[in-house]
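Hi U.,

Before I forget, here's the chain from the pilot set. I'm dumping it here mostly so it's searchable later in email.
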Amino acid sequence: MPNEHKFEENLLSHEAEKRISQKLDEVEQIEIDVDTDFLKIAQGQADGVSVAGQGLVIQEDIRIQEIKLQTDAIAINPLSALFGQIKLDRAVNAIAQIILTEADINRALSSEFIRSLMQNLDLNVDGEIVSFEPEQIQVFLPEAGKMEFRGKLLLKEMENTRPLAYTAIAHPRTHTQPAMLESFNCTEGEGISIELITALMQKAKELMNIPFFTWEEVIFSIKNLEVKTGNLILMVEAEVKQIPSSANAVSP
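Structure:
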């Protein structure tokens, strides 16, 4: 955008930054640019919205190191827009680059929000349902293209419940190869059967192949995942039906 924005662009962008900042638990920096003018606002139109932010925290423990987001043309409620609120009249497409640090990921994994999504995962092992409940999980990003997981869980087989600790090293999928498991080791407990490992890998494959997720009125899909030392970089495409007002559970 030009360095000198039109007055109405500055006003709307400033008010949008102010209102979104108020919804976040923490924010180090956020910049929102609404590409429009007074006539387009009156007609309920904007050529697009771009967002650049650093150190954004929602739900107390969900932190994003950096986000860059760009939408295509949008249709907005003109009366709301004049007061700095962007309310969509129709769905809009967006693309975003999101950077999470190793510390951000582990902070999120220990939060109540994420832990509530990870309770009692069920596996079908040769016709028998085996469930496991994660108790602790940590993620490390030691080098490019590699993720290390360390965790503890409760494994529930029939009427038997036992603890298990493990370490695993995996390589996320890229444009040229699928996700790969380099190693899996039990560090505490009696170990697990080959059949259970097979079922676990199948579940992981199913989760990674989910075509999209929803968050309030946003449908998004992860198009690319890149691991660098200490950082996880996500490329995300989204269809935004309405600007989220709060952080609710994510579901497929």
